[in-house]
Amino acid sequence: MPISDAARRTHEELFPGHVSTLARTDPELVECFDNFAFDEVLRHGSLDARTRLMVQLAALIACQAVGEYRVFDFLHATNDVLAERGVELPLPGQSTTTPETRYEQGLAVQKRIAGDERVEALYASAPEDEQHIQRYLSANCFGDHLTRDGLDVPTRELLTFAVLVALGGCDPQVKGHVAANLNVGNDRARLIGVLTQLIPFIGYPRTLNGLRALDEVSPAR
């Protein structure tokens, strides 16, 4: 998926002359991110550039992020380890969609994970001024990322569950992804196994919140 001209122009305005090292080591991620952050979302709404950048900066500060996207710092660390071990970058591409197919393929994966009725209800209940966010979920979150090779859908759902539990403050999303895990074959015992392994790293409060979400969606028999 090539970076669009609009995304290139926006990137140059924000970071004149800067060439990200991730464009060399992780080109597919940079393409997806730049097209989404510096082109697609900018087509919606009427925020002026100054206000847009201020609210984005405020959000990044709240996330305790140094880079424009929190995962970038971890990508750099991962790439350092790979380089030390002689792994040549970039790794082979794993994207399976194009700009023309990302929405339909993403919607199909979204329905597989969340269920047809749930996804259709999200679209049906979203007001007109929120419909674009539903399309972003289908095309970007699912189409650009969940359709990739490398990890199967059940594994991706376990990872999503772990991330949401560890973040805290995502209770509705945790419940949603408990249901999603069950939909793709990860049963209650497997989810309890994940939560058990997280205890040493995220502590008891967030682990117990995860257990509560699990019990509400899939009670013990």
From TrEMBL:
Gene Ontology terms for molecular function: peroxiredoxin activity
InterPro entries according to UniProt: 4CMD/NDH-1_regulator, AhpD-like, CMD-like
Gene3D superfamilies in UniProt: AhpD-like
Secretion signal span: none
Domain Carboxymuconolactone decarboxylase-like: 133-216
PANTHER family xref list: 4-CARBOXYMUCONOLACTONE DECARBOXYLASE FAMILY PROTEIN, CARBOXYMUCONOLACTONE DECARBOXYLASE-LIKE DOMAIN-CONTAINING PROTEIN
Protein's name according to its UniProt entry: Carboxymuconolactone decarboxylase family protein
